[in-house]
Design goal:
The protein has 7 helices and 10 strands. The chain is an alpha/beta fold. It is rod-shaped. Bound molecules: zinc ion.
């Protein structure tokens, strides 16, 4: 159901049944620019479409059955005979949607088929970088592409009952696929375990390593800790001198 074995990112369909004739190899040097929507005017799947196209000079790239299962009948890089318009055929990927009822029911299309179609439109727009699905631009219609020679894709045409919701779903799927494709933000680095107790020592160790520098005019490299120790040694000597001087002063004053 609903194209659940479809690989949307890579446009790998649920199944293949490539037509043997009634399509053209390559795209006449043209680029894929849009998707064109059709309805089958029958209840069917890719096998049923291919059986029809073996007898009739017509074809399409994808066929979606009434349960949303997607089959491929013409490879994306080849030109399907769908739109009754050579240039349009060469620049389009065409999708056939199965009906879920006949003419007596005015050609309904099931929700599963429409949902799979909208998802497929989004996947094609992503894969070929066509931009967001937009009616009349990236998403086109057989009736318009053929210059009005057909009513296909019937209720999917602009101004008809499935059109707006179909385009909205295609845009929704397109946005969802964009979120999925967006690069994930880098994970926050885990905080480094701090040794229990004397965290100032850890900070000091870091500073000590970072600001290690050469003593001017010598080849000796000293860390701030070395310098502090050095200063301590000087201070110790000075204190000793002061102490000795104090002792002398004491001796002199006592002797008075
Ligand atoms: Zn059509």
């Amino acid at each position: 159901m609903s194209g659940d074995s479809m690989d949307w990112e890579n446009l790998e369909p649920d199944k293949y049944n490539i037509v043997k004739k009634h399509f053209t190899k390559g795209r006449g040097g043209r680029k894929i620019r849009h998707v064109t929507l059709h309805h089958m005017a029958m209840i069917g799947d890719v096998d049923k479409c291919v059986a029809v196209w073996n007898d009739r000079p017509a074809s399409a790239h994808y066929c979606i059955d009434q349960y949303g299962k997607i089959g491929q009948a013409v490879n994306d890089w080849d030109t399907a005979w769908s739109n009754a318009n050579l240039r349009s055929n060469q620049e389009s990927i065409t999708i056939e949607h199965s009906n879920s009822g006949g003419a007596n029911q005015d050609w309904p299309i099931s929700e599963a088929t429409r949902e799979a179609g909208a998802h497929l439109v989004a996947a094609i727009c992503r894969y070929y970088k066509l931009g967001r699905p937009e009616s009349g631009k990236t998403v086109r219609f057989h009736s318009i592409e053929s210059g009005g020679s057909t009513g296909c894709p019937w209720h999917l045409r602009p101004g008809h009952k499935y059109h707006d919701s179909y385009i909205a779903r295609a845009q929704w799927w397109y946005d969802q696929m964009g979120k999925k494709a967006a690069p994930k933000p880098a994970p926050k680095p885990a905080p480094k375990p701090q040794p229990k107790g004397d965290t100032t020592m850890t900070d000091f160790d870091q500073i000590n390593r970072r600001y290690k520098s050469r003593v001017p005019g010598s080849k000796v490299t000293m860390t701030p800790l070395d310098m502090v120790r050095n200063t301590d040694a000087h201070a110790f000597l000075i204190l000793q001198k002061i102490e000795r001087l104090e002792q002398k002063i004491d001796q002199l004053t006592e002797g008075k």
